[in-house]
Write a structure and sequence with these properties.
It is a single chain. The chain contains 2 helices and no strands. The chain is mainly α. The protein has one domain. It is flat, with a radius of gyration of 17 Å. The relative contact order is 0.09.
Length: 71
Amino acid sequence: MKLLVSGAIIGILLIAFVFVWIYLASQGRVPVIQAPLEWVSPPVRLAALVFLVAVIAAIYFAMFPIKKRHS
């Protein structure tokens, strides 16, 4: 349960950070990446997203390993 709560908190903080960054970028207060991504195919975008999720999950589970119950 502790793992679920900490994961939810990290997820909420990450989403909040992204929305705050987008808002500040629209105001011109933070740097904006001006890279054209139209030429990148959707499967490559999806693969990059899955890779990023896997890296984040690996780091998270390295920091908070799953404890096995002994029955």
